[in-house]
Amino acid sequence: MNIYNKGPVFLGIVIFLALALFPFYNNFGKTNKKPDPKTDTPEIIEYEKLNGKKECVEPKAFMRGEHMVLLNDWRDGVVRDAYRGYISKANGKRFNMSIQNGCMKCHSSKKKFCDECHNYLAVKPFCWDCHIQPKEKEEAKS
Amino acid sequence: MSMDRRKFLKVAGISSILGFGASVASARNYAGQKGLVPPQVDANKETLTAKRWAMVVDMSKFKTDEDYKKVINACHTTHNVPDFRKADGSVDRKMEIKWIWTAPYERTFPGQDNKYMSEHMKDMPFMVLCNHCENPPCVRVCPTKATFKLQDGITMQDMHRCIGCRFCMAACPYGSRSFNWTDPRAASNLKGELPNKQYPTRTKGVVEKCTFCSERLQEGKLPACVEAAPKGGILFGDMEDPNSEVRKIVTNKYTIRRKPDLGTGPAVYYLIGGGDHA
To answer: Quick check: pTM over 0.90?
Structure first.
């Protein structure tokens, strides 16, 4: 088989492969740290002490998978239909439908609760462009 | 089964039309479905409700500059409204965000001024804000339904949906809407500690305006401006309720509204020369 311009062609192929496969060999053998969101803020520990268990708006599995849907429904409920209370299907309690005056009152660390997974998955919700995030406790100490 | 070309095309065409129609219908159903409905959700017990919220501004109660300032400050700190200023400390007109502000007579009630009216009336600043119109032009032009009417008559703004097209600003005859040209948190009064940590700020690229404090009504509180105004200066109530204070004043006294000839049906009434007994 006769190939014209053998040298440059093969050099090109090698360079292309080197670039295209960079992510694979660069990360080869490295263990990927799974995100580990924490629900151990002082507020939640206090709640657990008083009530003997941790409980949220809905069960953990549902919240993990569907919290974005829930938050969207809350948003429309509050802004467009003037509802303020959400009655949990899991425990029948009434929750204030608000991210900054509801969720973040217990989950008071955005870093450990939100960013842990969102950074891992490279999703950037824009909640905090407008809503006010709680102050991180560690930063307050130092 | 054998089928000639003509028959095949007929069947395929009709079924694709039917199929397409069905998919559109189901999409409509889905979008029209409410995410949350009672009893899954409810309103706060303390919520103040009305058929038609309205406001009466009694201009005779506003006597000093301080009275106006207090009202504007109360509103703007409650809602984290940014205060953009030029280097020399004057208000930056292009960047300015205002929910409630003052305007002279000829701009508040254009066409109703005359050259013999008292200097006092001519020069007096009037408290102006969103009129929460019966028939709001801003709602008609909004392409995303980001601005819409609540059932209690409030013209509400959903910041999540606003795409910043500014049609509403062009449509509003009262200049009640302001656009965020930059991140409002860069303004001098919102840097660092925010005035109200219970209420969000806005973001770059959305239009904002007065909401008749709908979030405060849900907590059973009157609008911030009503509380901050001199006693009786701003009254707030249900215009559909014949026994409400606002209705009684509008029925028994002579009040005027801004540009009523445009047919927008403003819900902010001005009592001029009300005196101490109004």
So the answer is: no
Q: What is the pLDDT of residue B274?
A: 66
Q: Do A97 and B41 touch (CB under 8 A)?
A: yes
Eight-class DSSP state of A35: P
Chain B residue with minimal CA distance to A82?
Answer: B43
Mutate to test the interface with B, among A62, A91, A94, A129 (most CBs of B within 10 A): A129
**CB A63 within 8 Å of CB A86:** no
| Residue whose entry in the numeric block shows the structure tokens 């088989």 | A1
d(CA B142, CA B163): 10
- The CB density around residue A27, as the number of other CB atoms within 10 Å, is 10
pLDDT of B224 > 60? The answer is yes
Per CATH, the number for B62-230 is 3.30.70.20
* Candidate from B40, B42, B158 with C-beta closest to A79: B158
A138 lies within 8 A of chain B by CB: no
Measured distance CA(B114)–CA(B106) in Å, rounded = 9
φ, ψ at B74 (rounded to 5°): -60, -45
> Hey, where are the domains in chain B?
62-230
Condensed to tens digits (0 to 9), the pLDDT of residues B42-83 reads 889 999 999 999 999 999 999 999 999 999 999 999 999 999
